[in-house]
Design goal:
Elements (H helix, E strand, L loop, with lengths): L1 E5 L4 H12 L3 E6 L4 H5 L6 E6 L7 H12 L6 E4 L5 H11 L6 E4 L13 E2 L11 H20 L3 E6 L1 E3 L15 H8 L4 E4 L5 E2 L1 E3 H11 L8 E5 L5 E2 H12 L5 E4 L1 H6 L5 H9 L4 E2 L2 H6 L9 H14 L8 H12 L2
Parallel strand pairs: 1-2, 1-4, 2-3, 4-5, 5-7, 6-15, 7-12, 8-11, 9-14
Antiparallel strand pairs: 10-13
Helix pairs in contact: 1-7, 4-5, 8-12
């Protein structure tokens, strides 16, 4: 299998990159080369080829030339773009890959599903509509363009919709600042109160990136996935109180939680909680992965959240580069908590 990943070193894509190399595939990473060493160091049986290029700024002709040179002019079995966020991005991808791949995979988002939800149970047929978050609306527009290219020109697309996927490099949370989750973890360690949106009882799903990768690889080169949209999540459902308690338990500290309505948070601060909460995490969701399991027989998410979060906590605590402080967010938390 000859796979091309645009990006390939993020939370989702790094786990997939490592697993396809373990399977002995040929993996071509097209990116700016800033973090490729993390993948190279773990390469086992496969072949890794790095193509240093900026898909957003380099011309289509330049990218074509580099891809053909790296691959010997052969067509890729799969091309997956992990950093496409707007219709302009996928339109350029189409012009690049129309004749260069047998399957093009677009990473969309489960946040694209309609808000407010008409049912807590989410399937791929749940309508797409999110008036609260531009990120989600852009993902919907990307999906619409790609489906049109599939129907009208036979472009072999597969759309994948992740929900909240995490890895060892950061702690997944509902409310955090622009510099990531470390400041909330630090507050927990120091015994300071942390904010949980709403009353903490809305339902959510956390998916470990190793589980996501296993499912994703099952869709790669899968002829039954052509023209399909498929969500990939764990089957484990938690509420936000359980999520924060699991994090506190992994830190071996008592959870000091303050519950504040999502609407209040969205209206009282410099952070985009209208999109990330009202348009996403404040909604109760349970994912029905029947379609995924039909396309990838035998797939089952294996990493329970309380187990996966212990791995994340251990890694973050032992790696200073994962501990980016955010004094502005810390001060905002104190102000919001003291005034409610």
């Amino acid at each position: 299998m000859k796979a091309l990943f645009i990006g390939g070193t993020g939370t989702i894509s790094a786990a997939i990159s490592r697993q396809v190399l373990e399977l002995g595939w040929e993996l071509y990473l097209l990116n700016r080369g800033n973090r490729n060493n993390e993948i190279s160091a773990r390469e086992q049986h496969g072949k890794l080829v790095e193509i240093n290029c900026d898909i957003r700024t380099d011309s289509v002709e330049t990218i074509h030339r580099k891809l053909k040179s790296a691959s010997g002019g052969l067509v890729f079995d799969v091309a997956a773009d992990f950093i496409a966020f707007t219709p302009e991005h996928v339109q350029k991808d189409f012009s690049i890959f129309e004749s260069l791949c047998k399957q093009y995979v677009f990473i969309s988002s489960a946040s694209a599903y309609q808000k407010p939800l008409s049912s807590y149970l989410i399937t791929e047929s749940t309508p797409l509509a999110n008036p609260y978050w531009e990120y989600s609306r852009n993902k919907i527009a990307c999906e619409e363009f790609l489906m049109a290219m599939y129907r009208n020109k036979g472009f072999p697309i597969t759309i994948v919709r992740p929900s909240h996927t995490y890895d060892e490099r950061s702690v997944p949370l509902g409310v955090h600042g622009n510099k990531g989750s470390w400041q909330v973890v630090k507050r927990m360690i120091e015994g300071k109160p942390v904010i949980i949106h709403g009353d903490g009882t809305s339902l959510w799903t956390m998916t470990h990136n190793s589980d996501f990768a296993s499912a994703f690889i099952g869709l790669m080169g899968n002829i039954h996935a052509t023209g399909e949209a498929v969500q990939i999540t764990s089957d484990e459902t938690l509420d936000w109180n359980q999520i924060y308690r699991a994090i506190a338990d992994a830190l071996n500290v008592e959870l000091n939680a303050v519950h504040i309505s999502s609407e209040f948070l969205a209206n009282n601060g410099p952070y985009d909680f209208t999109g990330s909460l009202i348009g996403d995490k404040a909604n109760s969701v349970v994912f029905d992965n029947t379609k995924l399991k039909r396309l990838v027989p035998g797939f089952c998410a294996k990493v329970r959240f309380d187990q996966g979060i212990r791995q994340s906590i251990a890694h973050v605590l032992s790696h200073k580069e994962c501990q980016t402080e955010d004094p502005e967010f810390d001060a905002w938390c104190d102000q919001i908590i003291n005034n409610t």
